[in-house]
Backbone:
């Protein structure tokens, strides 16, 4: 299976269209809502000389993964769900928003194109709605809407003094220490402040904590505890001048760390991510410097362009379903090796009867009754099939993403 890659806007800005096609081909892209927030915000920013804001956004939209991608559930929604007892897996699984249905014994998630993805299709053609311009302002304001005075007061109540912090390592240790505090009601209050919740949410979370045995905060609400750790780390590092306060984009950039639990790698060309992400990575995760991955994508693009026209018209699904099996030193091949699967061995094609059986299962799974809310809570581990509806260009840049004679690719 391909690595699940969380990427940021800086990475997409640095690669060209052909490199973006291969990135989409070799990775399952975890699209964080923060990426949409950043891109929408560009509609109200001053663009580079000689460019319009619309052109900047259209360029990003054109390079956004469209084949192997899934928008992740908003971290605020997941944090609230965690506080209230919902399960939020933090082991690299992609959390996908969608309609959950049951057909017989088969549980399926049907994921339609999200509103943001529909907007991206318009943006590629230079079409922008006024409502999207308003969202550009309101979404950025929502991201910056944390009550910083209340947050600072809560941190002081735990004895956190950022002025004593001398490194990012110490900032992380101080954040870990705060979240490990035995005053769980105070930690729940802090989480509610961070998530922009109200007194009702706090009371519900407290009641759930009491009913579940009054365990530690990380045991009670693991993902909410993780979010608090990231936010407190950021505030400590900011106050201690370990992260510059003069770069406004740092507030948005650090929010990508909220989605680290749902990927294998983080790809970024942002120095803040390079410095901060390693403090939050699991042992099975890796931070990938964007320029390094761009160089490997560029190398593979040149290799595939040397194929004959007939071979290229068979599509990437034919000749590049995996990285080159003889590629011992390539970064992408090494990232695939991290997955622990022996993808370098040639595999026999699926027999026609199995393909037919799979098609029949997929057809049946697309119709059924809505599943109850307690059957799935964002986790796809108990789902038999995930179906994604996408509008995919058959040819993008220099490459055919599917066979040239195909009518549609889904």
Residues:
């Amino acid at each position: 299976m391909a690595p699940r890659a969380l990427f940021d806007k800086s990475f997409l800005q640095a690669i060209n269209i052909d490199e973006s096609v291969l990135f989409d081909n070799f990775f399952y892209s975890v699209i964080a809502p923060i990426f949409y927030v950043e891109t929408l915000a560009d509609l109200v920013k001053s663009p580079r000389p000689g460019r319009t804001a619309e052109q900047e956004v259209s360029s990003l939209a054109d390079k956004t993964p469209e084949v192997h991608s899934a928008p992740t559930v908003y971290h605020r929604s997941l944090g609230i769900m965690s506080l209230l007892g919902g399960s939020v897996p933090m082991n690299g699984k992609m959390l996908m928003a969608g309609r959950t249905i049951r057909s017989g014994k088969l549980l399926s998630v049907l994921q339609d194109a999200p509103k943001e993805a529909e907007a991206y299709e318009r943006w590629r053609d230079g079409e922008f709605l006024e409502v999207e311009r308003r969202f550009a302002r309101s979404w950025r304001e929502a991201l910056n809407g944390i009550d910083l005075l209340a947050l600072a007061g809560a941190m002081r109540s735990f004895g956190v003094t950022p002025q004593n912090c001398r490194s990012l390592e110490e900032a992380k240790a101080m954040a870990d220490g705060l979240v490990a505090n035995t005053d769980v009601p105070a930690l729940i209050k802090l989480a509610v402040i961070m998530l922009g919740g109200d007194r009702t949410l706090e009371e519900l979370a407290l009641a759930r904590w009491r009913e579940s045995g009054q365990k530690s905060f990380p045991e009670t609400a693991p993902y909410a505890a993780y979010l608090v750790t990231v936010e407190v780390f950021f505030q400590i590092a900011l106050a201690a001048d370990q992260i510059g306060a003069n770069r406004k984009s740092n507030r948005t950039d650090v929010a990508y760390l909220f989605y680290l639990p749902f990927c294998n790698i983080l790809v970024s060309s942002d120095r803040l991510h390079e410095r901060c992400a390693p403090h939050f990575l699991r042992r099975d995760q890796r931070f990938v410097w964007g320029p390094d991955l761009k160089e490997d994508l560029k190398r593979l693009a040149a290799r595939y362009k040397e194929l004959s026209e007939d071979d290229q018209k068979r599509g990437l699904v034919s000749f590049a379903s995996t990285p080159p099996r003889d590629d011992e030193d390539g970064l992408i091949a090494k990232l695939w090796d991290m997955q622990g699967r022996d993808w370098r061995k040639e595999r026999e094609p699926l027999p026609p009867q199995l393909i037919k059986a799979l098609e029949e299962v997929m057809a049946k799974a697309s119709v059924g009754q809505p599943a109850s809310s307690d059957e799935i809570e964002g986790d796809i581990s108990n789902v038999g099939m995930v179906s994604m509806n996408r509008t995919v260009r058959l040819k993008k840049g220099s490459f055919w993403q599917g066979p040239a004679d195909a009518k549609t690719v889904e």
In short: The CA atoms of residues 326 and 344 lie 8 Å apart. The longest strand covers residues 106-111.
